[in-house]
Write a structure and sequence with these properties.
It is built from 20 helices and 6 strands. It has 534 residues and is mainly α. The longest helix has 25 residues, at 484-508. The N and C termini lie far apart (87 Å). This is Endochitinase B.
Length: 534
């Protein structure tokens, strides 16, 4: 029986509709592939035999503890498409040439544990002109591109013996190679430490300290000055996939870990970034840095995603120049403020050029567009993030410090240790942290007299607020009696408050408030002891 014209038209319409739906969701496939290519994620990538990589050291131990997440976070949607086979295909040279291995810092399990702490990583798809498939993969392409620059093998000799496309396929599979800055044999390590074991980063010479110091930093993120002979243990040189560096970043990451009920002292033992496995931190610290804004800088993830309006705002001058939306270029400003553009030669030099070329290669591997070629570099971006006149941090509210009431804090247009996330410039999930950060700033006022140089006779808010702050912290401790890690941390805070307030009250002659506070502290400590040891 012959089909009528309208039946044929109807069938064709359904077929066309189905094809459009598939295309809209990014499910188009380039497979099957031509000879010398293989199918990865429905995309054809060059199947090349790379030269044998030089392996450093004696390799991983035979036995080790498995990577483990104490919080048992649920699987990320990322795991449904980015598999262990793909991870191993992309990073065959990881861990000094030995490849992904459970006994070394870089492996698939460590990667997915990190991803589970940031559910938006590789899974977010806003309405930004790209499909869901493209957004997921561009996000990972950006992260991996920065890892190539920071810790890649970066063997330029590949281009002497192979054609460019083959050399690309081997060069950009060199990510996650190094552990330590300047590795594999970092000049920061003692002569008897080869850098071929993750524990080799426990000590460094003075050049590797990377310790920034001033009154604020010394209060919030103090460097460890512990020494072993001529070498320091407080070494904050670059470690991990995209090289977490300086005590400020180690301290901020440590603070975030506390918020996740992961208690680790990275300021005292920074090399735990490479050796801890419960959870593993070498990749988690880098994903944290990639996903977290630090005013005036947005998060790299938010730039490449341009999630909803207000998640990263480039400002009118940059918008006029085309620098807005889901673009790669400004992400290079976040790590090392590099904006030199892309080299014409291959593989080109380090810095922004390598980041751009790596991003292009990973996008090609994943079968997704890079975006506007001119916006892959931040070279022509008129205003850099430091040029913005936004509110950046919480600082003491000088207009009220003379009043007989607790000190307050307000947003300021200069940087500090406690960030302020200006609405319209940062994601809502960070804007919601502002009240918590304001309270943290208020608490810090009582410890930072040396910094803010308050005159105790005129800055009445300090002595008035000590008692109220102690009560507030006591109530918070009461609400977290089942969290032993928090109890330890908060009890230390209460002791610090008592010591500082004692000095304040003795100098300001506020004996009545001192007596009230002493009575409160004794009663509360008796109660806490009874509840805890009952």
């Amino acid at each position: 029986m012959k089909q009528s014209h309208w039946e044929m038209a109807l069938c064709f319409s359904f077929l066309l509709f189905f094809i459009l739906i598939i295309k809209a969701h990014g499910f188009s496939s380039r497979c099957p592939c031509e000879p010398d290519y293989k199918c990865v994620l429905n995309n054809c990538v060059l199947n090349v035999d790379c030269p044998t990589v030089k392996k450093q050291g004696n390799g991983p131990p035979k036995f080790c503890k498995d990577a483990f997440d104490p919080n048992r976070r649920p699987p990320s949607k990322l795991e449904s498409w980015f598999t262990e086979d793909i991870f191993n295909d992309l990073f065959p040279k990881a861990n000094l040439g030995w490849g992904a291995n459970k006994c070394f810092p870089y492996n698939y399990k460590a990667f997915i544990i990190a991803a589970r702490y940031f559910p938006e990583f590789g899974t977010e798809s806003p309405t930004n002109g790209f499909t869901a498939r493209e957004n997921y993969r561009r996000d990972l392409a950006a992260f991996f591109a920065h890892a190539i620059q920071e810790t890649g093998e970066n063997d330029a000799s590949l281009y002497s013996n192979m054609d460019v496309e083959q050399a690309h396929a081997c060069f950009y599979r060199g990510g996650f190679y190094n552990w330590f800055e300047g590795g594999p044999g970092s000049s920061f390590l003692p002569p008897n430490s080869s850098g071929y074991s993750p524990t080799d980063g426990d000590k460094c010479n003075p050049a590797g300290r990377y310790c920034s110091t001033n009154a604020e930093l010394d209060h919030f993120y103090p460097c460890s000055n512990e020494q072993e002979g001529n070498y320091y243990k407080g070494c904050y040189f670059g470690r991990g996939a995209i090289q977490l560096s300086y005590n400020f970043n180690y301290g901020q990451f440590q603070q975030w870990l506390y918020s996740q009920n992961i208690i680790v002292d990275l300021l005292k033992n920074p090399n735990l970034l490479m050796t801890k496995v419960d959870p593993p931190l070498a990749i988690l610290g880098s994903v944290w840095f990639y996903m977290t804004p630090q005013p005036p800088k947005p998060a790299m993830h938010d730039i490449i995603m341009d999630t909803i309006p207000g998640n990263w705002e480039s400002g009118p001058v940059n918008r006029e120049a085309g620098y807005f939306g889901p673009i790669f270029g400004p992400t290079s400003l976040i790590i090392n403020n590099e904006c030199s553009g892309e080299d014409q030669s291959e593989p080109g030099g380090p810095g922004e050029s390598r980041r751009i070329k790596a991003f292009k290669w990973f996008c090609d591997y994943f079968g997704v567009p890079t975006g506007d070629e001119e916006l892959l570099s931040c070279k022509n971006m008129p205003k850099k993030f430091g040029d913005f006149s936004n509110f950046l941090s919480f600082q003491p509210d000088w207009s009220s410090t003379w009043k007989e009431k607790p000190c307050s804090c307000a947003p300021a247009q200069y940087g500090g240790m406690i960030p302020y996330f200006q609405p319209g410039y940062y994601p809502e999930r960070y804007v919601r942290l502002n009240e918590q950060n304001r309270r943290r700033c208020v608490q810090s006022n009582y410890f930072l007299m040396e910094i803010i140089k308050m005159n105790l006779e005129t800055k009445s808010c300090i002595s008035t607020g000590c008692f109220k702050m102690a009560i507030s912290l006591g109530c918070t401790i009461h609400d977290n009696l089942n969290n032993e890690h928090y109890l330890f941390f908060a009890s230390q805070q209460l002791v610090n408050i008592f010591k500082r307030c004692f000095v304040i009250w003795m100098k300001s002659m506020h004996f009545k408030q001192f007596c009230h506070f002493t009575a409160f502290s004794l009663i509360f400590l008796i109660y806490l002891t009874d509840v805890t040891f009952g």
